[in-house]
TrEMBL record:
<keyword id="KW-1003">Cell membrane</keyword>
<dbReference type="Pfam" id="PF00893">
    <property type="entry name" value="Multi_Drug_Res"/>
</dbReference>
<protein>
    <submittedName>
        <fullName>Small multidrug resistance protein</fullName>
    </submittedName>
</protein>
<feature type="transmembrane region" description="Helical">
    <location>
        <begin position="84"/>
        <end position="103"/>
    </location>
</feature>
<dbReference type="InterPro" id="IPR037185">
    <property type="entry name" value="EmrE-like"/>
</dbReference>
<dbReference type="GO" id="GO:0031460">
    <property type="term" value="P:glycine betaine transport"/>
</dbReference>
<keyword id="KW-0472">Membrane</keyword>
<keyword id="KW-0813">Transport</keyword>
<dbReference type="InterPro" id="IPR000390">
    <property type="entry name" value="Small_drug/metabolite_transptr"/>
</dbReference>
<dbReference type="GO" id="GO:0005886">
    <property type="term" value="C:plasma membrane"/>
</dbReference>
<keyword id="KW-1133">Transmembrane helix</keyword>
<feature type="transmembrane region" description="Helical">
    <location>
        <begin position="57"/>
        <end position="78"/>
    </location>
</feature>
<comment type="similarity">
    <text>Belongs to the drug/metabolite transporter (DMT) superfamily. Small multidrug resistance (SMR) (TC 2.A.7.1) family.</text>
</comment>
<dbReference type="GO" id="GO:1990961">
    <property type="term" value="P:xenobiotic detoxification by transmembrane export across the plasma membrane"/>
</dbReference>
<dbReference type="InterPro" id="IPR045324">
    <property type="entry name" value="Small_multidrug_res"/>
</dbReference>
<dbReference type="GO" id="GO:0015220">
    <property type="term" value="F:choline transmembrane transporter activity"/>
</dbReference>
<keyword id="KW-0812">Transmembrane</keyword>
Length: 109
């Protein structure tokens, strides 16, 4: 269940961050409410994850996955360019998350 909570936290954070631009500095009501609700849900599921995993590991996975997914959404949805260093950096983030999950003794296997 722990990793399901973490996936939910990542999904809600990515959704909320994706909607953040649509709030137009929190001047549009519906996107603003959806953004705040998304962040609230993200932190709720993140707190459930912290019952079983160390905060450093959880935060590394949560933020790393969020960076990659938000960058992909920005590239696809908002047509924002990603250059080679950005792609390489995100590849390193994915590799780091993989190393944590596969080899760290701080996470259950």
């Amino acid at each position: 269940m722990t990793y399901l909570y973490l996936i939910m936290a990542i999904a809600f954070e990515v959704l909320a961050t994706s909607l953040l631009k649509e709030t137009q500095s929190f001047t549009r009501l519906l996107p603003s409410i959806m953004t705040l609700a998304g962040y609230g849900a993200a932190f709720f599921f993140l707190s459930l994850t912290l019952r079983a995993l160390p905060v450093g590991v959880v935060y590394a996975i949560w933020s790393g996955a969020g960076i990659v997914f938000i960058s992909a959404i920005g590239w696809i949805w908002f047509r924002q360019a990603l250059d080679a260093p950005a792609v390489i950096g995100m590849g390193l983030i994915v590799a780091g998350v993989g190393v944590i999950n596969l080899f760290s003794k701080a996470t259950p296997h």
